[in-house]
Amino acid sequence: MMNPTPAFDMLLFGGTGDLVMRKLLPALFGAHAAGLLHPLGRIYALGRQPLSRDDYLALASRDARAHCDGADDARWAAFCARIDYLQVDATRAADFAALAERLSGDDGRVRVVYLATAPGLFVPICEHLAAAGLADARTRLVLEKPLGHDLASADAINDAVSRHFAEDQLYRIDHYLGKESVQNLLALRFGNTLFEPLWRREWVESVQITLAEEIGVAGRGEFYERTGALRDMVQNHLLQLLCIVAMEPPASLDADAVRDEKLKVLKALAPFDAASVARDTVRGQYQAGASGGVAVEGYRAEEGVAADSRTETYVALKTSIGNWRWAGVPFYLRTGKRLARRQAEIVITFRDVPHKLFDVPPMCRNANRLVIELQPEESIRLWFRAKTPGDGMDLQPVSLNLDFHETFRVRRVDAYERLLLDVIRGRLALFMRRDEQAAAWRWVEPLLAAWAADTAGPRPYMAGSWGPAAASTLIARDGLSWPEEC
Ligand code: BG6
Description:
By secondary structure, the chain is α/β, with parallel strands linked by helices. Helix content is 35%, strand content 21%. It has 14 helices and 17 strands. Helix 1 (18-33) links the parallel strand 1 (8-13) and strand 2 (42-47). The longest helix is centred in the middle third of the chain and has 26 residues, at 221-246. It is globular, with a radius of gyration of 24 Å.
């Protein structure tokens, strides 16, 4: 059982927005209900709308409570006692002065400022915070992704923010790093001797990372038009997972020890050029189809999306890591919206035996696989060949399964809850450092440029399918297949 946090003020910019309602308040509620928040921990929701505290609590009751597990009346009321609402327009200095006034007298508390707004507001908010005296050493700033839309815009934001905050006050969030199963991957790799000797080019044939979503753009069409799957999922979530899979063992779990190793992976990724973009990447856009048995419209018919949009809702790509451990091992990454089902997993396929003693059916090829499922369930499955009972010597694939929920039977801690607790406690290991984020932008930029110049646009795929057929061809070229095709 963890100790409660120190006393804190949590300032949520974008306080009436979707992220606060669907993720941040529920995460804070989870921590509150588990007794992990200091009794003096206070939450200030900040937004442009002129709402009273009661209005805001009514809104939170309508939009956030349904996402809070176990929010009975008594618990919800106790949680609401921590919450206040203030009208703050990100461009109005006077509002920040009033905010500072409201917070005064709270010396010694940790101050967390969470920017759950459009990135265009990050800089004015930081400047106003500084002018109001709210950017002192006890302030920690949480920056939501995507930070900018390319390296130059990310640099501009980082430069402006760094004028007021030191790097160790900046918490660049990627909620995938807060997922239990990602932490477990670290435990699996570096808390055991079993896999580490095999975790290299001599024994690993390929690595596949899939983040498939069943949902479409879910009312965020306008945001998605500006962003696309490469910026929304690949530049951050997929690359962070790849780093955790591929990094060298850090000397300690110190933030910089871990982040140094992740940075080395990002720097060793093979850079794309026009030829490899054409050969090794596939982008797609969903068309009308069916999701969960219900007819759904195509991306271009979503609200806020242009009728001739060329924004990608799907990306599959092949890359490699140019270092001693991974040279020559293909890494396949893919993500998409409106795919057949919600499925996030990492598949490590080990090389086949060097000399075949047994006749194995084709389905038995690459039988040694480690499948780390991140979503919807959190599990680890190790596949290998075993003899089919009875006469003869037929082999078939079998697996050892570890379902974390079944095994531990404890409350599931949401990624945002873990990360918010880390911010309040001042733990930076699960947040991205500026140089990591810059390296990730540097790697995706040639892709962005090539796609912007390519008149062909994304390939259509039917909602409810597994994406464009070209993605199967991409991997089949190497004699491999995606997990659902095995
Ligand atoms: C967010 C993206 O970062 O991650 C969304 O902006 C995406 O588009 C979401 O749906 C997926 O997160 P999760 O935790 O539901 O897999």
